[in-house]
Design brief:
By secondary structure, the chain is an alpha/beta fold. It is built from 16 helices and seven strands. The protein folds into two domains: 228 residues, no CATH class; 111 residues, no CATH class. The chain has a five-stranded mixed beta sheet. It has a two-stranded antiparallel ribbon with strand order 5-6. The longest helix is centred in the middle third of the chain and has 25 residues.
């Protein structure tokens, strides 16, 4: 069932004869000569009559076709409506050429080819998206002037604060775009209407009794509120793409943390607490020997075992590799680290001392010793060719 709530403001109403039979019509006359459609619809909302949960209520004035040229066709397709459904079409799109209209992205909201979509706008300035809206620009200027707001003041946030709708005001300030039902024509599911009245009755009463009588501009600005009042969210645009953040460092579990602490303690003993350039730490000692030789393939399993915390397996693999090739510094280093991780500090220190000795030997052997030139031999030659020949026979 569709409940059509019409604010009668003195216009020709014969169009209601063309409404589908499934529509129930509620005509509301103004209580005073300055009453607006917004005031009439708010009064209906606060005195909300009962209805079936899935029934839909359509809010409009007595000239709905100016903002919703396809209204009659849309009423025949109410099964395709959402719980909060704008039924108008932005005025800024009326003059589009047909070829441009076919490329218009707003067609995603159309229903069976009938034009219906919300008007997107900037909550800060009320400027409409997709074209110049002189009426809305005038409304924004007048509202700022009325309340003494600067150009940088958030206009819709200020109005929602004025209405006592604090949560909506916060959402508006945090968003990039709002959505307005053109002409204030929209449909709302009965369950949504009832939930809105329960949540906002006090604020809506305040709007009706204090805000709207304050100035006619407030009623016109309320058109920017309807859809969001009933739960349609503001729009927040995606952030610009950024390089992916570096992965967070892996957190050590308790067992691995204990193993690392044991290694740190063992290394501190091995280096006497001075791991600097003058007393290189065991981490640095085998590096000179390892630099020129890639680790042997059998050590891969030892490294994988160490990485997953299986230090006993890592030590076994390192010992096997040392039995095969005792001079491999990387295998001894892996054995030392695996023993230290298990808390076997004395055994680990022994392996580190061996590495220290090999590292120092490597440094010494790599240093080039300058060659001394032997002094020239003193010649005992007398200058006689025969004597020179005889001396050459016995030389070196």
């Amino acid at each position: 069932m569709i409940n059509l709530v019409v604010a009668c403001l003195g216009q020709d109403m014969r169009w209601i004869d063309e409404l589908p039979a499934a529509c129930e019509i509620r005509l509301h006359a103004p209580r005073h000569h300055e009453a607006s459609a917004t005031e009439i619809h708010l009064r209906h909302l606060l005195d909300l009559p009962g209805a079936a949960p899935h029934d839909l209520t359509v809010l409009c004035d007595d000239t709905p076709f100016e903002a919703s040229p396809a209204l009659l066709g849309l009423l025949d397709r109410s099964e395709q409506w959402s719980d909060v459904q704008p039924l108008g079409w932005p005025q800024t799109l009326r003059d589009l050429k047909e070829e441009d209209l076919h490329r218009h992205p707003g067609q995603r909201d159309w229903i069976d080819g009938l034009p219906v979509e919300p008007q997107h706008f900037c909550p800060r300035s009320l400027s409409t998206l997709g074209g110049r809206d002189a009426e809305t620009q005038w409304l924004a200027r007048q509202y700022r002037r009325l309340h003494g707001l600067s150009r940088g003041e958030h206009l819709l946030g200020h109005f929602l604060d004025l209405c006592g709708l604090d949560e909506l005001a916060t959402a508006a300030r945090r968003s990039d775009l709002g959505r307005r039902a053109p002409g204030g024509i929209l449909a709302v599911r009965q369950t949504v209407l009832e939930a809105t009245v329960r949540q906002h009755r006090q604020a809506l009463t305040h709007v009706l009794e204090r805000v709207l009588p304050g100035h006619p501009l407030h009623a016109r600005l309320w058109e920017h509120v309807w859809l969001h009042l009933f739960g349609l969210p503001f729009v927040t645009l995606e952030a610009l793409p950024r390089p992916p953040a570096p992965p967070a460092p892996a957190r050590l579990d308790a067992a691995m943390a204990r193993a690392m602490a044991s290694i740190d303690a063992t290394l501190a003993r091995a280096t006497r607490g001075r791991p600097d350039t003058s007393t290189p730490a065991p981490f640095h000692l085998p590096a000179r020997a390892i630099a020129g030789h890639a680790p042997a393939a059998p050590m891969d399993e030892a490294m994988r075992a160490f990485g997953r915390g299986d230090f006993e397996q890592a030590a076994r693999q390192a010992r096997q590799e040392l039995m095969r090739a005792p001079d491999q510094e990387h295998s001894r280093f892996m054995l030392a680290m695996s023993l230290a991780a298990q808390g076997r500090s004395e055994e680990a220190l022994d392996q580190f001392e061996r590495l220290r000795g090999r590292g120092e030997q490597g440094v010494l052997s790599s240093r080039t010793t300058p060659q001394t030139t032997p002094p020239p031999a003193v010649s005992n030659s007398t200058g006689s060719p025969a004597e020179d020949r005889n001396s050459s026979r016995f030389s070196g």
